[in-house]
Amino acid sequence: MKKGREKTLVDEDIPKLREADQAESCYLLFLEQLNKQKQKEPSSQPSILRTIIVCHWKEILMSGFFALLKILTLSAGPVFLNAFILVAEGKESFKKVEYKWLSAVQLRKAYNGFLFWSSPVLVSAATFGACYFLKVPLHANNVFTFEATLRLVQDPVISIPDIIGVVIQAKVAFERILKFLEAPELQSENVRRKTNMESVNDAIVIKSANFSWEENSSKPTLKNINLEIRPGEKVAICGEVGSGKSTLLAAILGEVPTIQGTVSSN
Asked: What is the pTM of this model?
């Protein structure tokens, strides 16, 4: 970067790979391992794939280790996050419904990933296998025609897992939206706002109120709330994350059931 500020870079300014990573060194190492296999098993043809794995087993092992860490993090992250939230709320067990949906989503993702990588091989194997058992002659004209046709339909076939994933996400989203719209706190008969005609000087009055998102909960979300706001008065609600700021605003709008006390608005 320092040289790039001073002048336009040329090929000589670009750093070279270390000698072990250069193509010539990798090729010599490959030939060395291939000759060793030929000396061990002179009667059989050496495996190219095995030779490549022997040459670069450290890099393959390291890449596989980090790939495994990524898969474990993506799979177990939501479960641990859900457990942390439940512990922070004072609950000891998982929510069975959410845990069931998380498990179903992860299983479907694993199935979609398998289908994504194996669909081209499975289609080719099934087609040529059927031709073999049905004794259909395979020549260059029909084999290459089939391969060209398969190449045309390969992209739509590969996109099937993504479409399945989108359909699953849409189904879960619609069910959550429906559950949210049918929630008791969103129904007009459960809105617990009252109009106090005696205190016309106050726009919002909350007296010794307890609020909870669950009507039958023994532990209210907000407890012993007293608040008076006059018309035209600007009030800032401050606090830490999860302290109940949004719940208090929702309670003023009547979206949170009032367990005890009164909420009045003029």
From this structure: 0.33
